[in-house]
Amino acid sequence: MDKQNVQMNDPHPGTQLPGGYPPEYPPAAFPGPPGYTGYPGTQAGYPVPPAGYSAAGPVGFPVPYQPVTSQPGAPAGVPWMPAPPPPLNCPPGLEYLTQIDQLLIHQQIELLEVLTGFETSNKYEIKNSLGQRIYFAAEDTDCCTRNCCGPSRPFTMRILDNMGREVITLERPLRCTSCCFPCCLQEIEIQAPPGVPVGYVTQTWHPCLPKFTLQNERREDVLRITGPCIVCSCCADVDFEIKSLDDKYVVGKISKQWTGLVRELFTDVDNFGIQFPLDLDVKMKAAMLGACFLIDFMFFEMTRSEQRAGMW
């Protein structure tokens, strides 16, 4: 009975925070616009996860966050987020996204690129707010494409889970990069699992502002992304707001995080944060992840390349 009373009087039930400490990442920070119904329980027509796809436990029992370092296929010593039980008709591998309202994307430093300026394939760690790795993303392009097309290059981004399985594929075609022509604009396709489109991110033409539209698998507009007129800031983050279609409600944001003067000047390594409603459709969460990579290549890879060229 005493234990029950302590739990009921806990200032933040369901957490392990002591009294007097607010939750670090409130899940209701972006509750969504009025009338938003959240993540649908059943998505008709989507195939069930393939045989052999493992879950962390029986359906209906929540899995607590805890560091996992010994899962088969995972690099030694790297904490991974435990795989939660997949909801009904959830695309395989996206069940991780059902329990989080924030993603942290950390690009890895490539020593060869720093020393020589020779463009190498980008690699990213995708983590939750506790620092546990959820996915690992690796760019799949050839050497000629990377060094001839630069940040405008088409690419395939392969996103792997803690078992080394490719669960999300991002496809960016070669498109126009000039803001003067409102045609053939930037786009990225999100597939989960690979080969099954679940969303798209398309650039919306605007003479001054970076704007994008998030679309579902039927290419129906769902959300919009609007960035600042100047996509660079010294000693501060650069925020791209995720809004409802009528631009009245902010439901999340994609933030390019300031990483320090030395790293910003001498490398093209970037860190991003994505915030979204906890109950948002996992397909839209995956689409926001794709939007983050598209924004990185369009604006911040180019900025670092120009800085290096100017310095030398």
Automatic annotation (TrEMBL):
Query: Which spans does this entry mark as compositional bias, Pro residues?
Result: 20-34
Could you name the Gene Ontology cellular component terms for this entry? plasma membrane
Q: Which SUPFAM superfamilies match?
A: Tubby C-terminal domain-like
What GO molecular-function term can you cite, just one? phospholipid scramblase activity
Cofactors that this protein relies on: Ca(2+)
Q: Name one Pfam family in it.
A: Scramblase
Region called Disordered, residue ranges? 1-41
InterPro entries, from UniProt?
Answer: Scramblase, Tubby-like_C
Q: How does it sit in the membrane?
A: Single-pass type II membrane protein
Q: Where in the cell is it found?
A: Membrane
* Keyword Phosphoprotein attributed: yes
Alphabetized, the UniProt keywords read: Calcium, Lipoprotein, Membrane, Palmitate, Phosphoprotein, Transmembrane, Transmembrane helix
- What functional role does this protein have? May mediate accelerated ATP-independent bidirectional transbilayer migration of phospholipids upon binding calcium ions that results in a loss of phospholipid asymmetry in the plasma membrane.
Recorded hits in PANTHER family, A to Z, give: PHOSPHOLIPID SCRAMBLASE 1 (PTHR23248:SF38), PHOSPHOLIPID SCRAMBLASE-RELATED (PTHR23248)
State the similarity comment.
Belongs to the phospholipid scramblase family.
Protein name per its UniProtKB record: Phospholipid scramblase
The protein's gene is named PLSCR1
